[in-house]
Write a structure and sequence with these properties.
The protein is an all-alpha fold. It has three domains: 89 residues, no CATH class; 37 residues, no CATH class; 63 residues, no CATH class. It has 16 helices and no strands. The longest helix is centred in the N-terminal third of the chain and has 10 residues.
Length: 215
């Protein structure tokens, strides 16, 4: 018999059985995926330990071990982001993800380049065709796809608190604001405005607290 849809209360209760995101995903992926799809991950994670690894821990071997816990790049990206981003930055991403199935709705590099050509800025692309934008981001093609785009970087002093809040409100994911926000993310971070700017977010990739300190 097919299980009835998970509720927020059920997901929170299920998550409380585990100390870390990785343990929850590994042992109860149905609840984890339901919470992720509904934008409830932050509420489910509130009690969990923030596991910090010593400097140098995320070498290629340990990144591969981390990736093996997950079935997709997206799940790894959400479940153990520090390992995912180390692998991505170091050029190990594809090697770490060889066990993961290719999703049916796969967008090639050519698909992303063609889609990007329709837009003049990253935010226009993000809002107009989020699937190809996300595919380009996940595969490290964003820079190449956006070479033709108009720069959104503003003169010194442009990013006031009000403008940062308005800019952030256009994004569903924290990381997308960081990538596409024309410097507003970093101004908000430097001035301690991140809480106000991200108050609207219910579903987003959270960088480590060491890097961003959102909460």
């Amino acid at each position: 018999m097919k299980r009835k849809p998970w509720t927020l209360e059920e997901c929170v209760a299920d998550a409380r059985r585990f100390r870390t995101r990785q343990e929850w995903y590994a042992n109860s992926s149905g609840a984890y995926q339901a919470a992720r799809n509904k934008g409830w991950l932050d509420k489910c994670f509130q009690h969990m330990d923030e596991v910090r690894k010593p400097k140098g821990h995320w070498n290629k071997k340990n990144c591969k071990v981390s990736a093996k816990k997950f079935k997709t790049k997206s799940a790894w990206h959400y479940g153990e982001s520090s390992a995912y981003h180390k692998a991505k930055k170091s050029g190990w991403l594809e090697e770490c993800c060889t066990h993961m199935p290719v999703l049916k709705k796969h967008h090639s590099k050519d698909d992303c380049l063609a889609a990007a050509k329709k837009y003049n800025t990253r935010i226009e692309w993000y809002q107009g065709d989020n699937k190809t934008y996300r595919a380009a981001y996940m595969n490290d093609w964003l820079t190449e796809c956006c070479e033709h785009m108009t720069s959104k970087y503003k003169p010194k002093g442009y990013w006031t608190k009000e403008r940062c809040v308005a800019e952030a409100s256009q994004y569903e994911l924290l990381n997308d604001w960081m990538l596409c926000g024309g410097g507003s993310f970093w101004v908000a971070r430097r001035n301690g405005w991140l809480k106000e700017c991200t108050a609207h977010l219910t579903k987003y990739y959270r960088l480590s607290k060491l890097e961003v300190n959102v909460v």
